[in-house]
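Final report, closing paragraph on structural work. Over the funding period we assembled a curated collection of sequence-structure pairs, and we close with a single example.
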Amino acid sequence: MSKLFDGINYVLATSITRERRDITSSRVTHSVSEDELERPGTPTNRNTMRISTDMHKILTGSPQISAIVNTTPANVPILTSRNLEGYIVITQQDMYQHVFLHFVEQGLDYQFMIGVITEYTRSLHFNHVTVDPSLYQLLISYLVRNDKYYQLHQMLQYHVVSDSAHVACQLLSLESRYPPAYQLALDMFKRLNTDEEILEVLLAKKQIIPALRFLRSHRNLQYSTGRILDVAFEVGDPTLFFTTYKFFESRREIRGQECAEAVMHFQKLFVTSEPSSRFNK
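Its predicted structure, as stored:
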């Protein structure tokens, strides 16, 4: 399995590298001569040819993979491309759509599936190819579906699953089933330096005090003062609303039409003697 994926991703990596080199060359108006390109018969291509032979042996020798290959519908169109040496380039989307999703339809053992996807992503890393988030999302789905939360936690903690906004959002959706997923998502957003998303998550959870602390430590963050005040008011805690209002007042940020409603609520609650029905139910 390792040789199979390493062969596939080696060809993919060399194709990506060549595309980047061609783009760079075109930008500096420098045309690459044919002598500068890798030719069949060089050590690199002999290595690829050897890997391709190993791939054929694995495909024909593994009962589980052979069963899947032999049951693939003949009418499924698989679009392939070839590099300059004639090797088929199999992209991550090809693997996801025509291999992994087909595994799902076949209902293979989840341990086998988790092992296959993990090995494929390892091979991508080995060949310096950025892993598509959809592969990680599929892996997490398998782990959650089979209640393998400890294994999921370990993979995230040791960065077997790379950070991405897609994965972080998926972790947020798992909070009801696995509460630590919420903190794992926040930690991932922090590593990605996506401060706006962290603030949105805190506001969505109505964690006003942590949100204010976050704002205090991130002064260049873009946010809506009126929206935060509205969320604080919706919580239904007068003390919390007072604290939030005074926080922004000290920063001289309560101004404009967006804060008009919050100012009105504050006047009714703390300036006039008229009690607010909003907090006296």
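The two ends are 64 Å apart (CA to CA). The chain has 14 helices and two strands. We thank the funder for supporting this effort.
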